[in-house]
Amino acid sequence: MHRVPSHVACVMDGNGRWATRRGLPRTDGHGAGEKALLDTVYGALDLGLDWLTVYAFSTENWRRPADEVRYLMHFNEGILLRRRDELNDLGVRVRFSGRRDWRVPRRLLRHIDDTVALTGSNRKLTLTFAFNYGGRAEIIDAVRAVVADGVPASKVDERELRKRLYFPDMPDPDLVVRTSGEFRISNFLLWQLAYSELVFSDVLWPDFRREHLFDAVREYQRRDRRYGTVEA
Ligand code: IPE
Ligand code: IPE
Ligand code: MG
After folding, report:
1. Global pTM?
2. Whose CA is nearest to atom 1 of ligand 2?
3. Local structure of 194: helix, strand or coil
4. Core-most of 47, 121, 163, 174, by most CB within 10 Å?
5. Which residue among 13, 15, 28, 76 is the active-site one?
6. 50 belongs to the catalytic site
């Protein structure tokens, strides 16, 4: 296969609608998303991707009903406990990108740290959970670090800012897939998406499987990335 992307990022959207259509509580949709996530990880390994980044909880998702927020905190903790050995055996390095603020339960932070430590030396695939993540928050945090480091205004450039993003070693996504038929970015990786290819799928996240990832990659392979230049 030619031109396989190195980094794919997914906005895992449509869990609530998936559940509502079945007469179930919205949270059942999040639960059903676990299978979709794991199948996508297997698909990423099949494809030989280096990086897979998934949007799990945004800085705006705190505005949801308290019960749903609480469910999502437990759910993400549960995913770590249920899946970390499997991910580790697969050679997946797990990371979390986002703000570690007081709203994230302490126990979840501990499981995050344990999972990151457990899988830290794996190199097959880096799976980054964007959790309590906002693209604007990340840029603001980077700007704060630039200022705190005393970088003079005349020396502030893309390199100085990029160095202070949450994971400076993470390459920009080549491809972003958003499920559930929504056509927006919703504060995901704003800096990094400057030249990413965007593919939108009508599939609701709990129904997403590796075949849908392969479809998105095929669509990506038909795209012509120009980065502002003209054809050679
Ligand atoms: C995405 O599914 C999961 C999170 C945002 C945590 P949603 O919960 O947004 O599902 P819809 O968009 O309401 O269907
Ligand atoms: C984006 O989905 C966030 C995640 C998938 C975690 P949302 O469902 O929160 O986005 P909006 O509200 O439709 O823009
Ligand atoms: Mg949504």
Report:
1. 0.98
2. 186
3. coil
4. 174
5. 13
6. no
The string of pLDDT tens digits covering residues 36-89 is 999 999 999 999 999 999 999 999 999 999 999 999 999 999 999 999 999 999
pLDDT surpassing 70 at residue 1: no
Burial class (CB in 10 A: 0-12, 13-18, 19+), 207: middle
Atom of ligand 1 nearest to the CA of 19: 14
- On the question of pLDDT at 135 being above 60, the answer is yes
**Whole-number Å distance between alpha carbons of 170 and 114:** 21
Summarised one tens digit per residue, pLDDT across range 191-230 is 999 999 999 999 999 999 999 999 999 999 999 999 999 9
Which of 15, 39, 46, 61 is labelled catalytic?
61
Beta carbons of 60 and 69 less than 8 angstroms apart: no
Domains of the chain listed by start with CATH number: 7-134+172-221 (3.40.1180.10)
Best CA proximity match to 104, nearest among 167, 140, 58, 55: 58
Instruction: Indicate if 13 belongs to the active site.
Output: yes
Whether 11 lines ligand 2, by a CB cut-off of 6 Å, is yes
Taking the centre of ligand 1 as the mean of its atom positions, its distance from the CA of residue 149, in whole angstroms, is 37
Task: Find the 122 Cα to ligand 3 centroid distance in Å.
Answer: 31
Cite the DSSP H helix spans in 90-181.
106-119, 135-148, 158-162
